[in-house]
Amino acid sequence: MVNPEHLAAVMAVATGGAVALPYSVTGLRYLTVDADRRAVMRRGWFIRATWRRTAARIGLVQTDHAAKVGADIPLAGELRRSSDKPRVLIPRIAVRVEAWGLRIDVRTVGRIGLGELQAASSYLADAWRVPQVRVEQDRPGVVRLRALLRDPLTVPTRYEPDASAPVDLASWPVGRDADGQEVTIRSSGVSGVVLAGLAGFGKTSFLNTRFCQLAPSPAVQFVLIDGKGGPDYDDLFARAWLYSKDDLDQVHAVLSKVHRLMLLRQGGIASVLGVKNVWHLGPSEAWPLVVVVVDEAHTFFNETKTDKARDKVTGEITRMVEELVRKGRNVGIQTILATQKATGDAIPTRIRDNCQAAVSFAQRTSEASVAALGADIAEYPEAHPRRLQHPDYIGVASMVVEGRPGFTLVRTPRTEDDTAARLAADTAHLVSDPLALIEYQTRGLHAVEDDTAA
Ligand SMILES: Nc1ncnc2c1ncn2[C@@H]1O[C@H](COP(=O)(O)OP(=O)(O)OP(=O)(O)O)[C@@H](O)[C@H]1O
Ligand SMILES: [Mg+2]
Fold first, then answer.
1. Which of 11, 123, 285, 383 is most buried, taking the most CB atoms under 10 A from its CB?
2. What is the pLDDT confidence band of residue 71, given thresholds at 50, 70 and 90?
3. Do 53 and 114 sit in the same domain of this protein?
4. At which positions is ATP bound (predicted)?
């Protein structure tokens, strides 16, 4: 049997693509492009050539109710000529070849619009023999379909630091979406971020990338806490104001300092900066953004119920982290909590609920996805972290992006350990002590006040 897709290709090549199949790509071009592109072009011709039949079979057609009265329903005993049959309207399409597949613009007709095409997307994927058809409204009257031959999110990308690029502390470039668009989430005014996902799906690499983006700025100081206790962060400690592995007392000591910093900054911000929110001015060398990374954060929130002394420390750590997340926003302290633990209690809800951003790599269960991203994720099956369990999706995360509806899947770049280590060494001279700084800034202030009093 002749494969209709190949037949469409042969026809297009034979006719120069112009006579039988009038769309932008020509048969001539077909001969000059690589095999991947040819496959996309063939599929495009196939979709175009079979569109009327496909639309009819899937029910994306409608009879023209604007036809003259009585045209739909013959009167009893009335003989009808074939020309009297009600007109069947099929939405017109325009097919374009793109890097990952085909873009098909469908002109809406009658009651066939966004909702009907969304409902038909899986049937269209079957009819066109593609893994996925995505549907969105392009502009009034046009719905855009994307028939993806390969999911672009499965192609890994790599982060390369650009030393000459200015560091924008207000935003956080996280990667690219399925259409190759840069995705950025907000960093200004964010005091808490939850980062979740199954072991080995890219959480630490994501944090390395963020570290590399921020490390060249003297207006950023890091606190790095690694609950795994392994070597993951060893090379980055050089660029950290404070750091610790999984030793509970050490973590307690580190967080106590950060907590004290927060209290002093709260007390001094109005006098030192003249504003009540550092983001109104943006962080600076004199008032740096303090990024607190707690990897494998669940390590520090679990109570044993048997070891009282340990549970006391755990309780205090939990309280300090909760306050940092709840009150750190105005004073420029941002806490990022990463966890592979999938249960709802991995990060206490009173901490999680105060985090403004959540990012989830693959998850095994709906419960885990809800624990990371909130209950709304259930309404967005396309961006559900359960979809990401395949190794091809290592490094792909689901998140809310301001200005976009629902959740967005993002391919995050991989940062090589060497890259991050080199950057940490190169920027180690930028480490300063924000606690000493605020103590100095506020002491100076009291001295001035004292002078005035005297
Ligand atoms: N963005 C990415 N793109 C491609 N591959 C990645 C990406 N991120 C991570 N990987 C690969 O996956 C491996 C595990 O990544 P990573 O250590 O970041 O996972 P993790 O989620 O922190 O795991 P764990 O929970 O065990 O700490 C990396 O060594 C790397 O090979
Ligand atoms: Mg990790």
1. 383
2. low
3. yes
4. 197-204
